[in-house]
Design brief:
Strand content: 5-15%
Number of helices: 16
Cofactor: heme
Strand order of the largest sheet: 1-2-8-5-3
GO molecular function: heme binding; iron ion binding; monooxygenase activity; oxidoreductase activity, acting on paired donors, with incorporation or reduction of molecular oxygen
Family: Belongs to the cytochrome P450 family.
Protein name: Cytochrome
CATH architecture: Orthogonal Bundle
Number of domains: 1
Helix content: 40-55%
Structural class: alpha+beta
Pfam family, one: p450
Length: about 400
């Protein structure tokens, strides 16, 4: 049995990074039966897959995303359909637009949670801060003003069960299907209203931008992509911020540096945290023809995982890649993907992370991990600390 054949879903969920390191050394392109995917692990090959849509198509035949959310989605299309979806999604999340609203939005959401943490003297930051802030910030930017945080958080975890279900587990699929149906029913009235009454929300832009006067994109056309955004747009900033904070709290000297210059060094910590632990691990493709890559031939019609998480720890690009180091100056990470499918919300996500981490450290510069409740990371497609218990004040 080859190393790739021995890989299990549980091992990937526990910690994929040693697995990716071994694959980069011995089998940089390899079929992994446990998840029915060809893994591509080295930076240059991951980038090549993502930037070669004629060979590696986003239109895949066995996508867990489409199986769970319907189609078309912004992740699983190319050409004109993808262009239409991006044309609707992009306007709310361009850099200048994000700069005009993200600060006020995130601060107004974060402050009440920070107040509560101050009262308690401790917190589990994933549930008590990072996930609520990212969930509500995304929902409000979309135009979902009336959906509460517990519902949004439940939607995320349910949708995630479908998006990561490469092994086609029926229990995961049942959960995802139920939540997908619930999301569709809950979002549709807002879309119907925005069809008649446009506004400056992301959902409104998705309906109206680039369309002939008096017409909108059909709701059914947009709904699968809205579910993708509710999943990825909430997961990336909330979980990414949690990983970044773990990096800082477990490297106290770097934390002290950041506290001494929050404006300059929080963004550097955010970028290093995204490199160190990518919140979303793959860009999934399907081969349009047989192709040689990494010394092997991938057959036509094969599902391929371009592992951006592995690329961001490629030894050929980053020195001591498993180490969290905010002083790194070795080029960009791969967490937001490559090619025309790079993350459309990356500016909004990065700004959210910078704001959430900075507001937290400004308020609680003496934050520390709780002994005996150290954070444990889980996941390979979506990875973050499962919990992040902290206390205020010195030991």
């Amino acid at each position: 049995m080859s190393f790739a054949e021995s890989i299990t879903v549980e091992a990937l969920e526990a910690d994929p990074y040693p697995i990716y390191a071994e694959l980069r050394r011995s089998a940089p392109v390899a079929f992994v039966p446990a998840v029915n995917l060809w893994f591509v692990t080295r930076w240059k090959d991951v980038e090549s897959v993502a930037k070669s849509p004629d060979i590696f198509s986003a239109v895949v035949g066995t996508s867990p995303v489409e199986r769970s959310f319907g189609k078309p989605t912004i992740l699983t299309t190319d050409g004109e359909v993808h262009k239409q979806l991006r044309q609707g999604v992009d306007p709310k999340y361009r850099p200048r637009t994000v700069a005009s609203y993200a600060g006020d939005l995130v601060c107004s959401i974060a402050e009440p949670y920070l107040d509560k943490i101050a009262e308690q003297g401790s917190a589990e930051l994933m549930a008590d801060y990072f996930e609520p802030v990212s969930t509500l910030a995304l929902a409000r930017s979309l135009g979902l003003a009336d959906v509460d945080m517990p519902t949004l958080r439940r939607w995320f975890y349910g949708l995630a069960q479908g998006a990561i279900n490469f092994e086609n587990d029926p229990k995961r699929q049942e959960i995802a299907d139920a939540i997908s149906t619930e999301v569709g029913a809950a979002v549709r009235p807002t879309l119907e209203r925005l069809t008649r009454e446009p506004e400056d929300s992301a959902l409104s832009h998705m309906l109206h931008d680039g369309m002939p006067e008096g017409t909108t994109r059909p709701i059914e056309f947009l709904m699968p992509t809205i579910k993708v955004i509710l999943l990825g747009g909430r997961q990336e900033p909330g979980h990414g911020a949690g990983s970044i904070l773990v990096g800082l709290l477990t490297h106290r000297e770097q934390l002290r540096q950041v506290l001494g210059d929050l404006e300059t060094l929080v963004p550097k910590a955010v970028d290093e945290g995204l490199r160190w632990v990518a919140p979303i691990g793959t860009q999934t493709r399907q081969t349009t023809r047989p192709v040689e890559l990494g010394g092997v031939t991938i057959p036509a019609g094969a599902p391929v995982a371009a592992l951006v998480s592995s690329a961001s720890r490629d030894e050929s690009r980053f020195s001591d890649p498993d180490r969290f180091d905010i002083s790194r100056d070795e080029g960009n990470h791969a967490a937001f993907g490559f090619g025309h499918h790079f993350c459309s919300g990356r500016f909004f996500a990065r700004e959210q992370m910078c704001l959430a981490v900075r507001l937290l450290l400004e308020r609680f510069p003496d934050l520390r991990l709780v002994a005996g409740k150290e954070p444990v990371f889980r996941g390979w497609e979506f990875r973050a600390p499962a919990t992040l218990h902290v206390a205020l004040g010195a030991n």
